[in-house]
Request: fold
Amino acid sequence: MLFSSFLIEARQAATLYHLANVVLSIAFLIVRGIPQLCEMILVPEENGECTVTSREREILLFLAVIILVKGRKTTNWRHYVNNIFLFSKIANIFLFLRVDVIAGIVYLFLMIVVTVLVPEPAYSGPEKVTYFNNTELFDTLATDRRTTWVIQFYTTWSSECRHSSPVFSQLSEKFTLPNLKFGKLDVSRWAKEGERFRVNSHPSSRQLPTVCVFKDAKEVLRRPVVNENRRAVPFVFNEVGDLWFTLFIFKSFQEKYLLDLSSRIICSRR
Reply:
């Protein structure tokens, strides 16, 4: 089981997107490490050697610190790797520009081309998620009161929504039951429905993605929580979110499980 899941994760990492971004992330070090490229693209040091300077080491050290700090708030390994790509490419821009402006411009152009032509692949793993359109979610909650629904409100342009998608899909695989189902609603496409469920889909919003649990057509849980000042309390939907959801499921269904268990014990004694 673990080996098969590892193979699935490895296949998702073995893409042209990841390969291209790895090359872009270490492009400056590659150029510095190959004398022929260094002499042709960069200006060698006074001693004629293409080595990493003390100033460049400071920039790389600062990059490592930024990656470590930002890594604490990542959703999963894909999010963490994307953070490494993003900040490494930004550092490469500064490194190339401070040595040679033309080299920096060329690198920036290549980075834009790769971003446009080789976008990040969408999650394509197994899931048990219902995708709602327009008023379908509202109508389903009104008519199917016996089912507890876990709904993720998302947008197609939000990187946080994109990175949390695998976690939500894995949760749906683990916990879907006849009376517990998972669904999604695109609030960038159905903005009025987002307003109905009090989800702010503005580009500056910190409510994305919002995960709500509806029981008997009523909202019983929401993450992130919106405080009295109408500001979203930060919440990272990652493995910790997985634990949070597991505890909620146990709390919500423990009475049902205990009743079933007690009835089985009574029946067995009879």
Strands lie at 129-132, 148-154, 180-186, 210-215, 218-223. Residues 137-269 form a domain with the Glutaredoxin fold (CATH 3.40.30.10). The longest strand covers residues 148-154. The two ends are 40 Å apart (CA to CA).
